Amino acid sequence: MRDHLMRSRFMRAWKMAHDKGFVFACGTIDGTYLRAHSGSFHDEDEPYFVTFDLISGPQYRTRTIDVTVQGPARDRSLHLERSEQGLWTALLQTEGGRQADPELPDLHDAVDCDLWLSPLTNIMPVRRSGLAKPSPAVEESISHVMAWIDLPSLAVHRSRQDYQRLPSNSDGPAMIKLSDRDSEFKAEIEVDTQGFVIDYPNIATRVGELERIEEMITEIPSGLRAPVRAKYDSLVSDMAGDNFGRL
User: Fold this and answer.
1) C-alpha distances out from residue 162 to 29, 82, 157, Å
2) 35 FRET partner, CA 20 to 30 A, in 57, 66, 79, 187?
3) Cβ proximity of 190 and 175 under 8 Å
C-alpha cells in the first residue's frame, strides 16, 4: 500500500515557442504513481486541439495514455497501453469512427510514452531517475526507449533518448541535456526540483500565472475555442474539488 501522505496535486501551464499555442495540465502524484490530464492548442496553418489522459504504474512507468486530436480533417484518437509484462498495444480511431490496430515498432524495452510538444511527459523519466534532485557538480545520465507519439498524426515511433544531468552548483532548477539517438534532435531543458519543465527551448516555456492561459483562450479561432474552454474549465473545476481520486 502506498503512503498517501506523499500524494500531491499539481497544475501547470506552458506557452508554446514562437507563439504557436499553449499547454495546460494537472493531475496527481501519489508516491511514484502519476495520473495526469492535459489540453493543448496548436496554432499551425491548420490549428488543432489535443487532449490526453495519462495513467502510470509504479516508478512512473506508463500504463495507459489516451490522446485525442480535434481540428479540420484531423479528428482522431489513440489509446496506447503497456501491460505489466511490458507488452504495448494500441487502438487508433480516425475521422468517421473508423478503428484500426496500428502497427507498432519494437517497444519491448520501452517503459515511457513521450507525446510530441508536451512538456509534461518528460517528468516521468526525470523523476524516476532522480535527475531533478539537488546534486553536486557531476554529470549523471540515463538512457530510455520511449513510445514517441507524433502530433497531429498520432503515429507511434520507437525513440531512444538519453537524459544527462549537467553540472550545477545550486539547489535550484536543474539543467538536463536530452539527446535522441535516432535523430539529430538535442535540447537542454530546465526543470524544477519536482521534475516539471520550466523551459524547453523551441518547444515551450512555463507560464507562472494561469490568467495568461485565460487570455490566450480568448484568442483562439472560434471553431476550436469552445472545446478548449470546456477542457480548461473542467480541469480547473476538478482541481478545486479534488475530484481526481486516488490511483
Assistant:
1) 24, 21, 16
2) 187
3) yes
Residue 5, pLDDT > 80, answer no
Rounded to whole angstroms, the Cα distance separating 57 from 229 reads 30
**DSSP H stretches of helix in the chain:** 123-129, 210-218, 222-241
**E strand spans, the chain:** 8-16, 21-30, 33-42, 48-56, 62-70, 76-82, 88-94, 99-100, 112-115, 140-149, 156-165, 174-180, 186-191, 197-200, 204-206
Q: How far is CA 26 from CA 38, 90, 92, 203, 210, in A?
A: 6, 24, 25, 19, 12
pTM for the structure as a whole: 0.91
How many Cα atoms occupy the beta-carbon half-sphere of 17 within 13 Å?
10
Span 204-226, pLDDT tens digits: 999 987 788 899 999 998 899 99
Residue 2 clears pLDDT 60, i.e. is over it:
no
State the helix-helix crossing angle for 210-218 and 222-241, rounded to 10 degrees: 150
**22, 14 contact by CB (below 8 A):** yes
Q: For 146-160, how does the pLDDT look when each residue is reduced to its tens digit (9 = 90+)?
A: 999 999 999 999 999
DSSP 17: G
Number of residues that make up the chain: 247
Give me the mean pLDDT over the 104-111 stretch. 95
Distance CA 79, CA 51 (A): 12
123 vs 135: CA distance, rounded Å = 18
C-alpha cell, 30? 501519489
**pLDDT above 90 (res 231):** yes
Angle CA 126–130–134, to nearest 5: 115
Q: Which amino acid is at 98?
A: R
